[in-house]
Amino acid sequence: MNDARWLSDEEQASWRAxxxxxxxxxxxxxxxxxxxxxxxxxxxxVLVQLSESAEGRMRMTELSHSTHLSxxxxxxxxxxxxxxxxxxxxxxxxxxxxxxxEITEHGLATxxxxxxxxxxxxxxxxxxxxxxxxxxxxxVAMISVADGLRGRCRAHLAKxxxxxxxxxxxxxDAAIAVGPETAAVPGMRAAVA
Length: 193
Known about the structure:
By secondary structure, the protein is mainly alpha-helical. The protein has 8 helices and 3 strands, in the order H-H-E-H-H-E-E-H-H-H-H. The chain has helices at about 10-35, 40-50, 60-65, 70-85, 105-125, 130-170, 180-185, 190, and strands spanning about 55-60, 85-90, 95-105. Helix 1 packs across helix 5 (about 105-125) and helix 2 (about 40-50) packs across helix 5.
């Protein structure tokens, strides 16, 4: 590890600030959603995706990719949201194994009611603390980081799904293990050490 590219003091300060925001901001935003609308951030994310999609529905696979949730986790999430009347499942007419998640009228009313206050929280706790220039720079920077992570996230989800399927079929020993290379963002261990 002698060839490690250690973080400079400036990089370390930025990285640790990002880690703190990444951990605290979702908690603060979720507290608002839960107290006002009885939603968590994942509920909100699923409702946003469905409300913005054509006909208010998405194939479960597509929703899994857009929310970065494994198929198993999304299935549990959608089941819970179905029980709350926010979404419904529908069979895919051209693929017997596929299904859709659809936003219900109650789900649409819920997201419409939740969105204005949630946006105000995003402004209050995040955007209003930045100048327009900082917002532009942050947007460009986060798009660059997100572009670099998307492939890894999909690969990680594919490994999780393969392991879940193998475990469900009784072939746990054949499950693909999630290696340390996908368990953390590269450089994280050195950055927080």
